[in-house]
Design a protein that fits this description.
- The structure holds two protein chains of two kinds.
- By secondary structure, chain A is mainly β.
- Helices cover 8% and strands 34% of the residues of chain A.
- Chain A has one domain (6-57, 66-77, 92-175): Deoxyuridine 5'-Triphosphate Nucleotidohydrolase, Chain A, CATH 2.70.40.
- In chain B, strand 6 (408-409) and strand 7 form a beta hairpin.
- Helix content of chain B is 66%, strand content 6%.
- The N and C termini of chain B lie far apart (71 Å).
- Classes of the chains: A mainly beta, B mainly alpha.
- The interface between A and B is large, with 39 and 39 residues.
- Strand 12 of chain A pairs parallel with strand 8 (442-443) of chain B.
């Protein structure tokens, strides 16, 4: 298993989507990647557990009716402009995460994985230093597509504002070895194609 | 007099209670939910109105009102209370229209395109849910009149911003981007209000009707000629203006968006599944009603403008049934239609057929006037077919592979950022003609029906996300 380099990621990004080796990352707001990873931004949708509305989650037993409610924080207008422009009449679009609380979020970017590559999503190091952890199920399988779900937890002791549209995670791609014939592009996975964090669907195999 | 003072105090407290409840309701909603920027501004207006009424009424309760003004004050308070009941209705609809309860990406794009059309003026379109299974533009004229009246009675009462429009959509369908393409037609009604078309049409009707009455000697035998002429003018004017508004909105939606509007209209009428298969009779009307031109007349105009804007080949390729029906409609002559709106002027009952025939002939001239106005309004708006021809194939390839088509690639590997209109047209055509290809790629344990429903939902989500992404890329100057 080897990590895909910046050049290899760029090569695969330029492929047509119908090629099974292609990678899609959209919208791609910054073409300048690290040598071995791509930055991903915080998306606009969250699911925040409201303690009072969930009696108990019982996986496999019943439908989860009272799963954390969806919250929408639109991408901020004026994002990316100077600080002065950014504050003029623009409400900040952020979610405040209390200490020891967790929220489901998703990346702003929609990803399509190639058939011969897996990936791991990691917390950006600056966020780790304010005790934010972004993923507890960080592995992404070949051929998966969708906005990646982030299980964000605040492990620290003070509240932290999570700003929509800012880089929060890094994606590292790795080839699956030994190399096998990929075959046709397929869409598989329980949450394939999701654009926001979805309620879990527990299924016995 | 003492009684009157007591009554004013009591009315005043009743208004203050209503203000308090209404303010709490709106502020709670604003704290907990997120809104379209334009809806937020509308809610600000409502809060400012409540605040002004609250301050003014508190002043009234404490003031020593001279005896001679007591009656007038009582009347004012009555009007303020009636106004609050109006505000109450709008506040509820707006507060429930948070960003998760409306087609948010489409609503932001519609505001964007309305601003492009209205430049250098602004446009602020608030989209709210309606309990009816239909789309419409709410007439804010009553609220505007009320605002004006209250400005003279209540210190600091804000004017309703003139650029605000209120569009309604069926509230269950917030996530359906495709069928909500009907909102482009409602945006057309909003734009219509900002033109001088109504006064021009009124004046044309006056001239043409006078000539018609003269030529046919319609009123010579009638003693109360002037009275009957006025009634006839009102009848003709009301109908032609209503139809002109609808024709304007249809042509604008076709020119700004393209076939996605026509498909959405068929879907709303629940005839799209039939239309797509063949050109069989859709049960569409040939009769003009009190509120709308005949469906087949509207389709005749859709056909004309879809052809003029260059969509014909694409429709033939992917929706041949729809195209064949449109061609049939385009060939219909005006005498194939009728007017199903009783004249209700007994003095002219013998001439009803003659008047109907004259009105139908007027419609052709009316269409020409409307078309000229729409074209002038849209002279700086690009034809959506041009971007479609560049990008649609790449969009459909993305959709077939389950990918949000906000950054597509040409066969040469060049990045393409399809416009929202291309996304909607290609998305609709994919919905009609491409779903099987997508579902073939899906490996899951769900049965075929579940898969189909799941991926129809996904298709709408991907298109909404792609429209959002386009707006983000546009804000970041990345297009």
């Amino acid at each position: 298993m080897s990590v895909l380099s910046r050049d290899e990621i760029t090569r695969r990004l330029a492929m047509s989507v119908d090629q099974p080796e292609s990678i899609v990352i959209t919208p791609l707001l910054d073409d300048h990647f690290d040598r071995d990873a791509v930055d991903l931004r915080l998306g606009c949708y969250f699911r925040l557990p409201a303690m009072s509305s969930v009696a108990c989650i019982r996986p496999y037993r019943e439908a989860i009716d009272h799963y954390p409610e969806l919250i929408h924080k639109p991408y901020p207008r004026g994002h990316g402009k100077s600080t002065e422009d950014n504050t003029k009449g623009t409400a900040r679009s952020e979610l405040i995460l209390q200490p020891q609380h967790a929220v489901l979020a998703s990346t702003l970017e929609y990803i399509k994985m190639p058939g011969d590559v897996s990936a791991e999503i990691l917390t950006k190091s600056s966020w780790a230093r304010v005790f934010i952890n972004i993923a507890s199920a960080p592995w992404i399988h070949p051929f998966y597509r969708g906005c990646l779900t982030l299980e964000i937890t605040n492990l620290g002791s003070i509240p932290v504002a999570l700003p929509v549209g800012e880089p929060i995670a890094q994606l590292v791609f790795m080839t699956v070895e030994p190399h096998e014939e990929i075959g046709e592009d397929v869409i598989e996975g329980t949450y394939a194609g999701a654009i926001m964090p979805e309620a879990p669907r527990f299924r016995r195999s | 007099m003492q009684e009157a003072r007591k009554q004013i105090r009591s009315e005043g407290f009743s208004i203050l209670r209503l203000c308090r409840d209404l303010r709490n309701f709106v502020e709670l909603g604003r704290r907990q939910r997120t809104y379209l920027r334009e809806t937020g501004e509308f809610l600000d207006y409502i809060l400012e109105s409540i605040h002004a009424v609250d301050s003014s009424v508190q002043g009234d309760i404490e003031a020593e009102i001279p005896d001679e003004l007591l009656e007038a004050k009582r009347r004012d308070l009555g009007e303020i209370k009636r106004a609050l009941v109006w505000v109450y209705t709008f506040a509820k609809q707006a507060i429930e229209a948070d960003s998760l309860s409306i087609p948010f990406s489409l609503a932001t794009y519609i505001n964007h395109i309305a601003q492009e059309i209205q430049r250098p003026s602004t446009a602020k379109i608030v989209v709210v849910g309606s309990p009816n299974l239909m789309y419409y533009k709410w007439n804010l004229a009553d609220l505007r009149d009320l605002s004006k009246r209250l400005q003279s009675k209540v210190n600091g009462y804000p004017p309703l911003p003139k650029e605000i429009g209120l569009l309604m959509f069926p509230y269950c369908g917030a996530k359906e981007v495709l069928v909500n393409c009907d909102l482009f037609h409602e945006m057309g009604h909003y734009i219509y209000e900002t033109t001088d078309l109504e006064s021009k049409i009124r004046s044309d009707i006056g001239t043409h009707l006078a000539a018609f009455i003269e030529q046919e000697q319609l009123l010579n035998e009638i003693q109360s000629g002037l009275f009957v002429a006025n009634r006839l003018y009102n009848y003709v004017g009301r109908l032609l203006l209503t139809w002109a508004d609808e024709i304007f909105a249809d042509i604008l939606a076709i020119k700004v968006l393209g076939p996605a509007f026509h498909f959405a209209y068929l879907e709303l009428q629940q005839v799209l599944p039939v239309a797509i298969v063949s050109d069989t009779d859709l049960g569409a009307e040939n009769a003009f009603s009190e509120t709308h031109p005949a469906d087949n007349f509207r389709f005749k105009l859709h056909a004309k403008w879809l052809r003029k804007c260059g969509w014909r080949e694409e429709l033939e390729k992917h929706a041949s049934g729809v195209q064949a029906y449109l061609e049939k409609c385009e060939k219909l002559e005006i005498n194939a239609f009728k007017i199903d709106c009783p004249l209700r002027i007994p003095e002219l009952s013998d001439q009803e057929d003659l008047i109907e025939k004259w009105m139908l002939n007027q419609i052709e001239g009316l269409v020409e006037t409307v078309e000229t106005c729409v074209s002038k309004k849209l002279e700086n708006v690009p034809n959506p077919c041009d971007d479609y021809n560049r990008s649609a194939a790449a969009v459909m390839t993305c959709l077939e592979h389950g990918v949000v088509p906000s950054t597509a690639r040409s066969p040469e590997g060049v990045k393409i950022y399809p416009s929202p209109t291309t996304l909607l047209n290609a998305g609709f055509i994919f919905f009609l003609d491409g779903m099987e290809a997508l579902i073939k790629r899906v490996k899951s344990k769900e049965n075929r029906i579940e898969q189909r429903l799941q991926y129809e939902k996904r298709l709408n989500e991907w298109l909404a996300k792609a429209i959002d992404d386009w707006q983000i890329l546009s804000m970041e100057n990345k297009l």
